[in-house]
Structure formats: structure tokens, C-alpha cells
Amino acid sequence: MKFFTGLLIGAMVMGTTLSSCYMVDSPGTPQGGGNAVDIQNNSFNPAILNVTKGTEVTWTHRGSITHNVTPVSGIPNTSSGSMNSGDTFKVTFAAAGDWDYQCTLHSGMTGKIHVTE
Ligand SMILES: [Cu+2]
């Protein structure tokens, strides 16, 4: 009888261990960084992105309401226009310098691409 009780407890411990494994969050998709900017929660992430010249930067709209990427200063003078969920916008930065930008629909929603040689 003790043997069967031991088995039962063993099975319960194993079951608990297995079920806790299933509860571990799956690794999320990396957000931002590299040459990518995410548009989410009324912000650009990362707000400041450092790239070397010649890099193509991609903005991806991962939110739900309309945003845009509009330069404030720097070159090239190109804007995304209205972006909605799932939309992407790409800009290649051919020259070193700062490219400051904003979403004209939401004050305080700003970002910067810092382009180095
Ligand atoms: Cu916006």
C-alpha cells in the first residue's frame, strides 16, 4: 500500500511539474532595435535608433489607431502618410546626421534616427 501511495504522490509531483512547464510564457517577438522601429501604444519604439548611413529603416505599425511618420528635420524629406495596423514604411538614410520625426496626429509622439558614417 505504501508503494502505491508513493507512486500516486510521484505522479502528482510530475503532473505539477509538467503543467508548470506549459505555463511558461513563450518568448515574444523582439521589438524594435536593429533597423526596425515599432509604432505601438502611441509611441515609437525605440524612440532613438542609431544606424550607419546606407541603412534602410522600417517602421511597423503594431497598434490600432492611425499614425504617421513625418520628418521634422533632416533628409530625406519623405513622409509615410497615414499608417494603420500592419502597415510598414521604409526609409534609406544615405547621409549621416539626425532625422527627427513625429506623428502629426499625436503631440509628443516623436522619434529620432541617428545616422552615423
Ligand atoms: Cu500618432
Description:
The relative contact order is 0.20. This protein has a domain at 36-116: Cupredoxins -  blue copper proteins (Immunoglobulin-like). Residues 3-31 have low confidence and may be disordered. The termini are far apart. 18% of the residues lie in helices and 37% in strands. It is of the alpha/beta class. The radius of gyration is 24 Å and the shape is globular. The strands form two sheets. Strands 2-1-4-6 form a four-stranded mixed β-sheet, with no helix packed on it. A four-stranded mixed β-sheet has the order 3-8-7-5, with no helix packed on it. The chain has one helix spanning 2-22, and strands at 36-40, 43-45, 48-52, 55-61, 70-73, 88-93, 97-102, 110-116. Strand 1 (36-40) and strand 2 form a beta hairpin.
Q: Taking Cα atoms only, what radius of gyration do you get, to the nearest Å?
A: 24 Å
Number of helices: 1
Identify the CATH class of one domain. Mainly Beta
The CATH homologous superfamily of one domain is called Cupredoxins -  blue copper proteins
Detail the poorly predicted runs: 3-31
Task: Provide the structure class.
Answer: alpha/beta
List keywords for this structure.
Immunoglobulin-like; four-stranded mixed β-sheet; 1 helix; 117 residues; alpha/beta
